[in-house]
Design goal:
By secondary structure, the protein is mainly β. It is built from 2 helices and 36 strands. It folds into 2 domains: about 180 residues, Protein Transport Mog1p, Chain A, CATH 3.40.1000.10; about 260 residues, TolB, C-terminal domain (Neuraminidase, 6 Propeller), CATH 2.120.10.30.
């Protein structure tokens, strides 16, 4: 889970106290009230208004404070805005990433993570607790880190103590965790939550055979739409209204494919092209009135369009090459597609007008480019490039043809799909074992894992436009 930018506070020192928020005191307890949250802490502690931290803060910090027994023994409390929603349903999928972040952060001040994370609930929110060590001005301190998730808001505690006051700080830390309350979901900031797309559709063989699945963009609400007992399927595309999925499925193993359709309630499964030809790679027009696809029905592989009921099939390309993987632009006026050279296996990215005219080549490298996906503003196209035995995600400017590589490393990253607001890109990857779904910012940063298929494979995704 690529959230290291959010965890700027690893260890700290309180330099002054403040009365900027309301505190209610009892015989042995004070209560913090502010930023839409409340929590109890030992009455003898004070709020720290200035905290010197061992790592720089982040622009995604919503607010922060500290309650302290002294300048080193303290509990740092902060809230952050996350790029995706984290809930109890997808907590397992992000745990390994959070653990890796904690490990890196504690290593910076010569510390270690001493135990595996444990799940907990803080204020009714799903959370994780880590225990480790760090240093403050060369002196060792114990560190208990707590992460609680309220969709796109994260609450972070770092309970830091010297050996002499370890028991006191741990009791205060446990008190904060037990008493922590959020006034209302995601109320920690007046800033609006980032827009999340509704649904992501993908293929998976997590139950033994490949089928179509639907999941919320935050990784929750997983549903299986088809119930095929054998065979393969691929290239699902979710309709603009979110009600229908189109995909291709071979007639039999290693044979030609047909275009199928199914509603997102799992009903209405139907073969749209029950013919002997190979029909593949369907995708919706932005108004939902057409489906573009590739087919061998002309004697070579060309681009076609049809109505969503399988009628009115129209051929768009006849270029004497192998054309495939069509994708409509957001305004419906253009189609991105691949044109492949059968003699070299090289595939290049092209665009054309929606009627098949005005073809224009975008990429010119002698490698295999595939899976074009338009950005919501129509200015860029994300795609996958295979070269040197590795697959990565790139974006290219439609106007200037300038390319940017978003992923790198030994893993295969592929099949990009943009979020509706253009801020993020979902993709498939085997970077953590079996192929799973991930989301990153549109510049390639802050990678977050969405699914964990066990022994299966999650891939071939499409984000609802």
């Amino acid at each position: 889970m690529g959230l290291s930018a959010y965890y700027g506070v690893v260890s700290g020192r309180v330099t002054s106290t403040s009365q900027g928020h309301r505190f209610a005191s009892g015989n042995a307890t004070s209560t913090y009230l502010g930023h839409g949250v409340s929590f109890d802490y030992p009455a003898g502690w004070q709020e720290g208004s200035k905290v010197q931290t061992r790592a720089a803060g982040s622009g995604d910090t919503l607010w922060g404070t500290a309650v302290a027994a002294d300048e080193v023994n303290l509990v740092l409390v902060r809230a952050y805005r996350l790029p995706v929603s984290v809930t109890a349903e997808n907590l397992d999928a992000v745990t390994a990433g959070v653990q890796a972040v904690v490990q890196r952060l504690l290593e910076q001040p010569a510390g270690t993570v001493q135990a595996v994370p444990e799940k907990l609930s803080m204020g009714g929110l799903p959370g994780l607790r880590f225990r480790g060590t760090a240093t403050v001005d060369g002196a060792p301190v114990a560190s208990t880190m707590v992460f609680a998730f309220d969709h796109t808001t994260e609450y972070f505690l770092n309970c830091q103590s010297t050996r002499a006051r370890a028991a006191e700080i741990q009791r205060g830390c446990d008190q904060i965790v037990r008493s922590f309350k959020v006034a209302s979901p995601s109320s920690a900031s007046s800033a609006p939550a980032p827009r999340l797309g509704n649904k992501i559709v993908f293929t998976s063989n997590r139950t033994g055979s490949y089928n179509i699945y639907l999941v919320n963009a935050d990784g929750s609400g997983l549903r299986q739409l088809t119930r095929f007992r054998a065979g393969d399927l691929s290239r699902p595309s979710l309709s603009p209204d979110g009600n229908t999925v189109v995909f291709d499925r071979p007639k039999k193993p290693n044979a030609e494919s047909d275009i199928w359709i199914v509603r997102t309630d799992g009903r209405g499964l139907r073969n749209l092209t029950p013919d002997p030809e190979d029909d593949t790679s369907p995708s919706w027009s932005p108004d939902g009135t057409k489906i573009a696809f590739a087919s061998s029905r002309s004697g070579a592989y060309d681009i076609f369009v049809m109505h969503p009921d399988g009628t009115a099939i129209e051929q768009l390309t006849d270029r004497g090459a192998t054309d495939g993987e069509p994708a409509f632009s957001p305004d419906g006026t253009r189609i991105a597609f691949l044109e492949c050279d059968p003699s070299s296996a090289a595939c290049q990215l092209w665009t054309m007008n929606a009627d098949g005219t005005g073809a224009r080549r975008l990429t010119k490298s002698p490698v295999e480019d595939e899976r074009p996906a338009w950005s919501p503003d129509g200015t860029r196209i994300a795609f996958t490039r295979k070269q040197h035995g590795n697959t990565d995600v790139y974006v290219i400017s439609v106007a200037s043809r300038r390319e940017q590589r978003l992923t790198s490393g030994p893993a295969d990253d592929y099949q990009p799909s943009w979020s509706p607001d253009g801020s993020r890109i979902a993709f498939g990857s085997n970077r953590a074992g079996p192929p799973s779904l991930y989301v990153m910012q549109a510049d390639g940063t802050r990678v977050v894992r969405l699914t964990a298929p066990g022994n299966g494979q999650d891939e071939d995704l499409s984000w609802q436009p």
